[in-house]
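User: Reviewer 2 asked us to show a designed sequence for the structure in our supplementary figure. I'm pasting the structure tokens here. Could you produce the per-position amino acids so we can include them in the response letter?
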């Protein structure tokens, strides 16, 4: 069925010769439209293009793979209709190498093709994340160490300013953070230099015109607007019917102060504002009693005025707390430490780059910058595009960028460089949704999207914007709920885009009416668990809240599964909801997912987290890591104790206490050693002896055993691999241990070596939260509730979505560090006076902190938007609150607000999602009903559930298996369980065997030594180079035979007249890399010469000249299984495979020759060994050629003659 496109989608598909920005709302079918646009270019009648003339950039490899798959399938469908179309046939071939890739993939492609232009070794390797983390740490420490040795005054000031605690680890973190920010810019060193500009200001004029001061006035202006709103609202209440008129005098005083403040703001008089704020003393509200005043209005007016006073106080404390002279003094104090930080970061960049060059590795950041260096040069501030950039520009007809809202400045510069914009042709196609830009932590720049969004025209033009509003994913009720919330909370001032009629979601999907009699419930709902306060510490309270919320969600899932109807796209009909239809989305899964899974499983609801964290904290992984730590260094007290307490040691806490009591001055390692010599407890000595024996053997292997093999040996020799598999959740634990082995193999591919560095590698991954997630043992199609992060859910859709954790406080850690960093505003630090020993937040830091916080809030808004737009049928928001009354009061206030958008102060002051959701839903109880559950109710249900399970368990434990409840069922079960498969013996019969296996049949024979194509190398002893003796490698056994076979396979019989001619051929084969050096050395040319001069050799030469000689002929034939083993059933067939060395055709039949390098004294030995093998060779040739094998020979190089074999 042909797809029906909307007019806007049709424009996206058809418009040509322009830059196009597609603002595609959630669920608007942007991927389908993008694919259709590409297909249109490939299949148009006038000048169709080739797929490799397009550069298609996606955000993830999975998206690139899906895009390639869709295009391949579409091209194949077109070919079915027009199979003779050569252009489409060519696309089918080209698509596999077309540039449908991520930005990293494209950068890699650029580097691989133009590495020579930047003097890069083409053999470079892409380092993994753990290796790069280790190297960064090492380089940062090296940079700091060199500065400590030089000990300049500037460096001392830097250390005093930033390393205020006992450790200087914070300095390493600062350098690494500065590095990350710098490298997200096209010209990192320029960005670093720009960070010092704010601290070079020396005059008031320079201060007034600087970028961060302009931002100060902008942010302070928002606060002033909030003050204005609150005061005007207060005025309305005071002068309304029943209002507290006696408050009017105090309010008028406030209004006069505000007007003066507005005048100072208008002229941007910084000192004037400070004086006004310093001198302001608000009047006390009148306490006069008046019975005509309504009490609720009195309280509301008082509350509004208090909020306005708080906003004024905030304005003074955040911005106008010092004079301009004091601001300049602050900047002077910060100048030297900031310049030193920039110097250290520059040195880090240089050293880190050099280390990577030495190791010949690159990371993903390097890829972008190397590609940029290949394509663009910047000289004297001017950008110049290279020949490579021009070649790419000529090649690509159009550049299509998916998820454009997540681009950064480096990526923007890269893609601009390969476009044709500088040649006057617009060929950029960008698609995305700024409302779904949720990768700020990766330094994405949604401003790039917004710049084009605001400048591109909706009318026909060379830079055109097309908005896709219709959502083809969700029910109208879900979209109405999402719009209801975001109309009120998302704006240009917070969230980067104005959520208005142009940005709203409109239903495009068609859902059939539900069957009659099925009640129509609201598509959106809020579930709140009120927890109250019970004096728990913060961490315990958070865990308790999570468990209550999970239970609340679990009860809702129970009520929906099997009863709620959902639309099945595949079946095209309604069906009862299943567990797999439900997904729980969390802002972060760290510390949440495990609690949710445990609670749901405890309720009997199957659940799993699709991308669990906590891999390194699992019992089995921690146990093996501790064992590795003590193999590296046994003097580590905690790991050694942990291992002894684990199943690896088998000791109890009492036994460990006994060890320490016997030897209180010793470390636990010494305690174990001494107790083994002197201990009295036989059972404990036996445990420790068994542990020690394995431990010592493994320690001996540490220096020369690869880590993954060492882990394998630990699991095997201690039995812990089997033990973990037998524990509860054994399959998961085995998967985790297998993943540890895989990660060890990954580590071994890095430039680091040894157990000590592997432990460091793992510790760095833990420190920087590079968690692998537990090994996944579940399939996507299992009927289970999925729990995932909101980021992981992007691009996906689910019938029933629980947006959970709405009460979790936002993470604002980026704005609360000692040094704050912003892409545009630079860096802000604490002003530290080393003489006075004082520290205070500088004004520039205050401004940058505020901006980071606002951008973080904007990001949280967009994350919420992504979560809410995943739902197809049902959207349920869940979370906990301590006092619901507080939110009900806020709702009442928001309901009185006349404008659609909530006040900026209310939105900007949010600490969690509830702070937005409750005010936004004020008055929307029917469309978005709120259900509040008390903690007592949830706990009662939990207790009832557990009591039921206890009763069920008791019933199972006392079950009498001999009692017959239903004789028919019992008989049926007995028959099924006693069934024996009648053809079980067939499992012994192999499907395929080699001739070598068959020749062993019936006798024990000396064999040629087996040779493996990929043999595992034996561990060589560690010997210094100067002590090593030069030894020639000598092939033995089957390897020697293989060498002779290879020479005879390649031998040109037209050039074998002499031994010298044969030697020359061997040299040629070596040069052509058809044989190895070892083969050339082991084969004796005299033996080859003797062979070709033999009677058999001469006949082979003649056959070669006639073209009837066949060499190294592979074959597969079937034989009766009873030939292999008489006990096996006749009639069953098995396949025999092998390779015939040589045979040739003569007029009266075939002649077969097999070469043998066995050391034998007479020909009969060979006949005895290989007669059965030759029988199968003859049988194969006679079947294949329909001719009789008239002669059969084994040529022995040891005897120098051919031995005839009767067949």
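Assistant: Here is a per-position design you can include in the supplement:
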């Amino acid at each position: 069925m042909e797809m029906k496109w909307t007019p806007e989608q049709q424009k996206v598909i058809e418009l040509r010769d322009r830059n196009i920005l597609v603002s595609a709302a959630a669920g608007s079918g942007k991927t389908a439209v993008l694919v259709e646009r590409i297909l249109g270019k490939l299949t148009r009648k006038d000048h169709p293009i080739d797929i490799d003339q397009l550069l298609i950039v996606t955000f993830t490899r999975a998206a690139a793979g899906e895009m390639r798959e869709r295009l391949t399938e579409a091209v194949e469908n077109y070919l079915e209709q027009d199979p003779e179309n050569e252009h489409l046939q060519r696309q089918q071939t080209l698509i596999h190498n077309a540039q449908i890739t991520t930005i990293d993939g494209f950068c890699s492609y650029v580097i691989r093709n133009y590495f020579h232009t930047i003097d890069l070794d083409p053999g470079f390797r892409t380092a993994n994340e753990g290796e790069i983390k280790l190297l960064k740490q090492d380089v940062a420490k090296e940079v700091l160490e060199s500065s400590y040795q030089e000990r300049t005054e500037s460096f001392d000031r830097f250390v005093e300013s930033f390393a205020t605690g006992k450790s200087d680890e914070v300095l390493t973190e600062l350098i690494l953070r500065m590095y990350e920010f710098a490298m997200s810019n096209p010209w990192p060193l320029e960005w670093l230099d720009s960070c010092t500009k704010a601290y070079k200001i020396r005059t008031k004029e320079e201060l007034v015109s600087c970028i961060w001061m302009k931002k100060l006035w902008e942010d302070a202006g928002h606060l002033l607007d909030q003050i204005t709103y609150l005061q005007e609202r207060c005025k309305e209440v005071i002068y309304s019917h029943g209002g507290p008129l006696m408050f009017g005098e105090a309010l008028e005083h406030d209004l006069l102060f505000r007007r003066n403040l507005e005048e100072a703001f208008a002229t941007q008089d910084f000192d004037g504002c400070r004086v006004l704020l310093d001198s302001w003393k608000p009047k006390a509200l009148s306490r006069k009693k008046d019975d005509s005043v309504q009490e609720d209005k009195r309280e509301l007016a008082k509350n509004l005025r208090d909020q306005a006073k708080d906003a004024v106080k905030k304005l003074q404390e955040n911005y106008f707390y010092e004079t301009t002279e004091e601001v300049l003094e602050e900047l002077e104090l910060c100048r030297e430490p900031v310049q030193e930080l920039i110097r250290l970061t520059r040195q880090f960049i240089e050293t880190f780059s050099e280390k990577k060059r030495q190791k010949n590795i690159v990371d993903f950041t390097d890829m972008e910058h190397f590609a940029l260096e290949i394509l663009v040069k910047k000289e004297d501030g001017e950008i110049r595009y290279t020949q490579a950039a021009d070649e790419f520009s000529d090649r690509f007809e159009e550049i299509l960028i998916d998820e454009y809202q997540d681009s950064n400045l480096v990526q923007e510069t890269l893609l601009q460089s390969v476009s044709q914009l500088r040649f006057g042709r617009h060929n950029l196609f960008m698609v995305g949704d700024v409302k779904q830009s949720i990768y700020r932590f990766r330094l994405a720049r949604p401003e790039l999207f917004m710049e084009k969004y605001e400048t591109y025209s909706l009318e026909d033009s060379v830079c055109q914007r097309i908005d896709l509003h219709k959502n083809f994913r969700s029910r109208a009720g879900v979209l109405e709920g999402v719009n209801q919330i975001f109309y009120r909370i998302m704006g240009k001032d917070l969230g980067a885009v104005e959520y208005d009629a142009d940005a709203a979601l409109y239903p495009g999907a068609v859902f059939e009416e539900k069957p009659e009699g099925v009640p129509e419930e609201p598509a959106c709902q809020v579930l709140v668990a009120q927890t109250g306060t019970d004096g728990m510490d913060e961490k315990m309270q958070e865990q308790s809240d999570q468990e209550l919320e999970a239970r609340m969600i679990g009860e809702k899932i129970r009520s929906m599964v099997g009863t709620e109807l959902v639309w099945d796209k595949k079946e095209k009909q309604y069906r009862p909801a299943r567990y797999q239809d439900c997904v729980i989305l969390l802002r972060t899964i760290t510390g949440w997912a495990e609690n949710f899974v445990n609670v749901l499983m405890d309720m009997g609801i199957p659940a799993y987290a699709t991308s669990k964290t906590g891999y390194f904290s699992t019992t089995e992984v921690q146990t093996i890591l501790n064992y590795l730590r003590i193999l590296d260094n046994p003097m580590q007290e905690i790991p050694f104790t942990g291992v002894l307490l684990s199943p690896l040691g088998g000791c109890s806490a009492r036994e460990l206490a006994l060890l320490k009591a016997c030897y209180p001055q010793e470390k636990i390692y010494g305690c174990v050693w001494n107790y083994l010599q002197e201990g009295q407890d036989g059972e404990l000595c036996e445990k420790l002896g068994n542990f020690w024996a394995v431990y010592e053997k493994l320690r001996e292997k540490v220096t020369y055993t690869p880590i993954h093999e060492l882990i394998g040996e630990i699991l095997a020799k201690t039995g812990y691999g089997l033990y973990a598999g037998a524990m509860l959740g054994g399959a998961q634990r085995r998967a985790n241990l297998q993943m540890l082995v895989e990660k060890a193999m990954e580590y071994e591919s890095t430039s680091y070596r040894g157990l000590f560095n592997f432990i460091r590698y793992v510790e760095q991954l833990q420190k920087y939260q590079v968690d692998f997630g537990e090994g996944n043992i579940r399939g996507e199609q299992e009927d289970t509730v999925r729990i995932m992060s909101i980021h992981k859910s992007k691009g996906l859709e689910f019938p029933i979505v629980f947006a959970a954790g709405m009460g979790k406080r936002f993470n604002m850690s980026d704005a609360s560090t000692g040094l704050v960093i912003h892409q545009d505003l630079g860096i802000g630090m604490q002003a530290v006076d080393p003489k006075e020993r004082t520290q205070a937040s500088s004004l520039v830091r205050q401004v940058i902190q505020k901006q980071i916080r606002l951008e973080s809030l904007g990001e949280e808004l967009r994350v919420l938007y992504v979560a809410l737009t995943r739902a197809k049928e049902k959207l349920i928001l869940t979370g906990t609150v301590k006092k619901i009354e507080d939110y009900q009061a806020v709702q009442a206030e928001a309901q009185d607000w006349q404008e659609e958008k909530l006040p900026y102060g209310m939105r900007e002051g949010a600490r969690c999602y509830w702070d937005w959701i409750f005010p936004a839903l004020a008055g929307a109880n029917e469309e978005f009903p709120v259900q509040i559950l008390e903690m007592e109710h949830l706990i009662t249900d939990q207790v009832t559930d557990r009591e039921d399970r206890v009763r069920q368990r008791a019933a199972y434990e006392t079950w009498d298996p001999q009692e017959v409840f239903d004789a028919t069922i019992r008989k049926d079960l007995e028959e099924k369980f006693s069934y024996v498969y009648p053809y079980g013996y067939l499992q012994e019969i192999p499907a395929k065997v080699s001739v070598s296996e068959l020749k062993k049949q019936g006798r024990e024979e000396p064999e040629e030594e087996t040779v493996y194509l990929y043999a595992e190398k034996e561990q060589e002893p560690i010997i210094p180079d100067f002590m090593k003796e030069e030894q020639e490698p000598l092939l033995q056994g089957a390897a020697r035979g293989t060498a002779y076979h290879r020479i005879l396979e390649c031998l040109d019989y037209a050039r074998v007249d002499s031994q010298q001619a044969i030697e020359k051929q061997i040299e040629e084969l070596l040069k052509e890399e058809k044989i190895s050096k070892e083969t050339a050395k082991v084969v004796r040319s005299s033996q080859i010469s003797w062979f070709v001069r033999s009677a058999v050799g001469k006949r082979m030469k003649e056959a070669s000249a006639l073209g009837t000689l066949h060499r190294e002929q592979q074959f597969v034939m079937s034989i009766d299984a009873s030939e292999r083993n008489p006990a096996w059933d006749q009639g069953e067939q098995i396949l025999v495979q092998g390779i015939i060395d040589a045979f040739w055709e003569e007029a009266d039949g075939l002649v077969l020759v097999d070469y043998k390098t066995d050391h034998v004294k007479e020909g009969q030995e060979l006949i005895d060994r290989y007669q059965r093998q030759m029988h199968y060779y003859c049988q194969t040739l006679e079947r294949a050629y329909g001719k009789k094998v008239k002669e059969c020979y084994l040529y022995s190089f040891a005897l120098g003659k051919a031995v005839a074999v009767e067949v």
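For the response letter, you might also mention the following. Residues 1002-1023, 1025-1034 have pLDDT under 50 and may be disordered. Residues 324-359 form the longest helix (36 residues).
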